[in-house]
Known about the structure:
Elements: E1 4-15, E2 18-29, E3 33-37, H1 44-52, E4 59-64, E5 67-68, E6 78-81, H2 93-104, H3 110-117, H4 133-145, E7 151-154, H5 163-178, E8 182-187, E9 198-203, E10 206-211, H6 213-220, H7 225-237
Parallel strand pairs: 3-8, 3-9, 6-7, 7-8
Antiparallel strand pairs: 1-2, 1-4, 4-5, 9-10
Helix pairs in contact: 2-3, 3-4, 6-7
Bound molecules: adenosine-5'-triphosphate.
Residues 15-16, 18, 20, 38, 40-46, 188 line the site of adenosine-5'-triphosphate.
Amino acid sequence: MQGAAVEVRDLTVVRGGVTALDQVTLAVPTGQVTGLLGPSGCGKTTLMRSIVGVQIVESGSVFVLGEPAGSPSLRSRVAYVTQAPSVYGDLTVRGNLRYFASILGAEDGAVDRAIDAVDLRAEADRLVNRLSGGQLSRVSLATALLDEPEVLVLDEPTVGLDPVLRRDLWALFHRLAADGATLLVSSHVMDEATRCERLVLMREGHVLADGTPDALLERTGAADMESAFLALIEGGRS
Ligand SMILES: Nc1ncnc2c1ncn2[C@@H]1O[C@H](COP(=O)(O)OP(=O)(O)OP(=O)(O)O)[C@@H](O)[C@H]1O
């Protein structure tokens, strides 16, 4: 695909004896928010790990920004936020961000910009282990923004967040995309699908469908994404 930030071809990954990804091929367009949706265990995290280059793969290829996934040259260009918070509980929000900024060699002002982007200014001087779950996941996200990455891979970033925070985070994702970043955001909540410009629907290690929300609704004749997903599963069985 022209203009794809991520290109995955015939990717097969086996984890713990299970085929977690089975000949997956897809492209993630540059400068858009692509949603990766599907039920628990369908392979979303495995696909994301393959894209950021931390997954041992059986066969196939993954290219990110034209380089093989995991290439050293991609380190500052690709950010990955896992489901588990990867920040220090005994440091403040600002302390964490300063620490990661110094490791990354991020420029002056990056810490404040990242704190503002995730709307944590009021919590900036609080210890991270005193924050709520939603605040904690926003600190992780802020660390990923320090380097102004071109590709952001976010594993279920809105899990456990209230509707207002979810709306605000999706607005942030779209602002980042409007500035040219490519976002791949996983979720197993189907109503988040309509917030994406493009969707990849997965099931049991396979890509069921890949396209715009409107195209998927049209293709299935369904009224909402949940029904569209079910229709695709039923269609796959026939
Ligand atoms: N560390 C592991 N060791 C062995 N098998 C694993 C491991 N992690 C995941 N798997 C298996 O790989 C498959 C895909 O899991 P994966 O975590 O990619 O799914 P997921 O769609 O991200 O799920 P969730 O939405 O629950 O995070 C599953 O069958 C799972 O049991």
